[in-house]
Every structure is written in structure tokens, then in C-alpha cells.
From TrEMBL, chain A:
<dbReference type="InterPro" id="IPR036736">
    <property type="entry name" value="ACP-like_sf"/>
</dbReference>
<feature type="domain" description="Carrier">
    <location>
        <begin position="1"/>
        <end position="74"/>
    </location>
</feature>
<protein>
    <submittedName>
        <fullName>Acyl carrier protein</fullName>
    </submittedName>
</protein>
<dbReference type="Pfam" id="PF00550">
    <property type="entry name" value="PP-binding"/>
</dbReference>
<dbReference type="InterPro" id="IPR009081">
    <property type="entry name" value="PP-bd_ACP"/>
</dbReference>
UniProtKB/TrEMBL annotation, chain B:
<dbReference type="InterPro" id="IPR013747">
    <property type="entry name" value="ACP_syn_III_C"/>
</dbReference>
<dbReference type="GO" id="GO:0004315">
    <property type="term" value="F:3-oxoacyl-[acyl-carrier-protein] synthase activity"/>
</dbReference>
<feature type="domain" description="Beta-ketoacyl-[acyl-carrier-protein] synthase III C-terminal">
    <location>
        <begin position="253"/>
        <end position="343"/>
    </location>
</feature>
<dbReference type="InterPro" id="IPR016039">
    <property type="entry name" value="Thiolase-like"/>
</dbReference>
<keyword id="KW-0808">Transferase</keyword>
<dbReference type="Pfam" id="PF08541">
    <property type="entry name" value="ACP_syn_III_C"/>
</dbReference>
<feature type="domain" description="Beta-ketoacyl-[acyl-carrier-protein] synthase III N-terminal">
    <location>
        <begin position="115"/>
        <end position="187"/>
    </location>
</feature>
<dbReference type="Pfam" id="PF08545">
    <property type="entry name" value="ACP_syn_III"/>
</dbReference>
<protein>
    <submittedName>
        <fullName>Ketoacyl-ACP synthase III</fullName>
    </submittedName>
</protein>
Amino acid sequence: MKDKILQQLSEIRPEFDFKESSNFIAEGLLDSFDVVQLVAALDEHYNISIDGMDIIPENFSSIDSILAILIKNGVKNELKIQE
Amino acid sequence: MNLKFKNKRISGILTVLPEKEIKFEDELDNYNFSKSQSMKLKLVMGYDKRRVIKEGTTCSDLCIFGLNYLFEKNLLKKEDIDAMVLVTQSPDYFMPPTSHVIHGKLDLKQDMVCMDINQGCSGYIVGLNQAFMLLEQEEINKVVLLNADILSQKVSNRDRNSNPIIGDGASITIIENDNNNTNIFGAVKVDGTGAEALIIPAGAFKMPSSNETSELKEDQSGNLRSLDNLKMKGDEVFNFVQREVPPMIENLLQKSGYNKDDIDYYLFHQPNRFMLRKLADKIGVPYAKMPDNIVENFGNASGVSVPTAITYNLGDTLVNESFLVCMAGFGTGLNWAALIMRMDKLMFCELINYK
């Protein structure tokens, strides 16, 4: 699941290495329009609709925060299932 | 605040759009963003074509063109207009009111109410509320509501945040008394602490335009705009809309006694496709009931976007049929407002080009 998120981030901003960043927003890897594109991609891939209230930069600042938002919006935590 | 009206109807809607069309792709070189990045955004946000005025055309020109069209087609008689309300944020002048300029050029009667209202994205709902209130007066039987904006003139063409969505246009809505015995339910809210979320900082009395205010400056994201240009804090506006609009609609539905499935169409302000689909998901209505195709075809002309959504998507259908609709506007102010009412066999519901 984390790999899928990384793949989608790379498709939006291929010039950045998201694995090396601790905060995508603060470090300038994503802006608000990138977040919109990411939400649209995640909505489509997981067949969900991330709540508009959750679309704030802090929720898209790291892989873990994105994972948390996906789970909050109904995506099953595949990582937990694998454990 | 909740509002309620009775025995009033919308009898006709006309949208007037300028003929000049700009394509999103044609402006990609203006922006400090890669073309591929912008093209991906186009799909999500619904950017495509927008209509803008040619330099020199004013809001009064668009309104007069539309009113003359109605007079010539015998869809409206000058002598029947008891009140005329223009909602705009791009008046011809600071003074006099643009509604009065229109009144003079059309030689309308003196015995009438005529006023401008400064409102933006929620301006259609605010204008309808004003019209319904005017119709409570014994001597007022027909109100002409004009919505018009030409804000493309105030947006930097190097600002990808705002430029791709802004269009120009005008609409004319006829509202009158009727013995239909039906209720109209309204809600209106305001939060002036968000006044700077959508603002043109310079050009009025607080900060008159000068060489300094016309200087383009780059923001953190790479957009260039001056203090004379429209500035939109996109994140703030998006979050405000997602936070405030769904509960307003739910409360209004509850007040009206209708449930969300009873509503045939949700005719909302058209900021962009992404925002509208998120609203539809949150409120729990299918996308087919909430048209989101105005930005991609014409651009967002502020308060004109709701009547454009009506005339473009329903058009002739509304001349022959009756629908229960929920309309909503939200944006500059910050202001947000909604109405639930029946639209029943309008006399006209058209979209025409300004020539």
C-alpha cells in the first residue's frame, strides 16, 4: 500500500524522491494542486471519496499521514492484514 | 439565518455570454508550471474553455443586450418592471450604480426600485432573496434580477490559481408573484473574518491603484499577480466550502421537510469540478443531479454560474416541465446561501451569445 502511494506521488511529481522527504508539504514537494491530483488518484484507485474536510495539507505531508487518511476514509489497512 | 417565502416564482432565465473563447492549452506558456503538470490538473479540475469579454465591454453592455433581447422577443415588457436589482462585483463605475446606468439607457419608468448589490459567488441566491423580499410590497409584482461579472479583467494571466477558471457573463432572471401556494425555503450565512480569502486588494479607496500596485510579484507556489489582481486563497476557500455548505444544505432540507432524494437538481455555484464532486459525495447525491460542467465550457462568472448551469443543462426542459431544485452559492465574503424551490414551466430558459 505504501508502495502504491509512493508510485502515485512519483507520477504527480516525478522530479522528487519522496522516500527522502520527511514532510512533503514543508519541503515543497507537493503544493495544494498536487494534493488535489493525489486525492483524485487515490479516490479512483481505492474506489472511495476522501472527505473534503480531510483535504488539508497536513494530511498529505508523509506516507504515514496519507495512509491514515485512506484508512479513515474506508480503505482497509492492508499492512495490518499482512501482519 | 433561515428565510421563507410564499407565492413567488421564477418565470424566466436568460444567460448572456461573451463570444470570445480562451482555451486552457493556449495559456499554458503563461504559467510557471510544467505543461504536463497543468494538463493533469485540467482533467481533475475541469479546466478547458472559458468565455471572456473583449476589452471595453462592460457589465451594463451584457445586461442591456440581454434585456433588449427579451423586449424584442416580447418576453418582458418595460412597463412591467417594478424593481431591478443588479448583483455585481465589477460595476461600470464606483458611482453611479450600474443598475441606474442600465435604467437610463433602456429608458425605464421612474416609478420603480433600482439597486446594485455587491456580492460574488453567492450573488444569485442573495439576489433572489432580495427579489422575494421586494415582492412583499403591494406595488411590486415583477422584479428583474441581473447578475453580471467581468472579473477576467482583474485576474493575472500568469496566475494558474485563478486564471483558468474565471469567465465573464450576465444573467437576467424574472421573479414575480404567483398564486401557486408553494413555499420557498432559504438559508443565508456570512463570515466576514474570511473577507481576505477572495479579494482584489487594490483599486478602491483603501488602496488606490498605482504603479506599485500594478507590479507583478511571485507567490510561494510560482503564480504571478499584482495587488490590482484578484487573489484567491484556494485552500481556505476549498476548506470553507467543504466545512460549511453540506450542513447548510442538510439543515435547509430538514426545514423544508424534503429529503435529499426529493430534489431533482442541485444547481450549485461552479468553482471547479473537483470541489463540486466532493460536495456531491459529502451531501450524498449522484453527480447527475449536480451539474459540474460550467467551468469547463464557459468558466466561472461568479454569481452568474448558477443561472448558467440552469440554462445550459436544463434549458428547454424547464420550459415544459417542473422541477424541485436546491440552489446554492458560496465564496467571497465569505458568504454562503441556498434555496429550495420549485421551478415550474418557465416562460423562457435560454443561453445566448453577446454580439
